[in-house]
Write a structure and sequence with these properties.
The protein is mainly α. It contains 3 helices and no strands.
Length: 55
């Protein structure tokens, strides 16, 4: 169980969560910029994209 949790919490996950949390805060404050939206979309695409080597 500890190994599964350790695999879930890697650098990619931490960075993705930071980007999404920052974007959410910016949305609530009303200071969303178009450039940041593109970065969030790229991070989410990278994070959820299926890799060919995974089964």
């Amino acid at each position: 169980m500890k190994e599964r949790i350790a695999k879930l919490i890697d650098l990619k996950t931490i960075l993705s969560l930071i980007v999404i949390i920052a974007y959410t805060i910016m949305c609530f404050k009303g200071i969303v910029e178009a450039d940041y939206k593109d970065i969030v979309i790229m991070v989410m695409t990278f994070y959820f994209a299926k890799k060919d080597g995974d089964k």
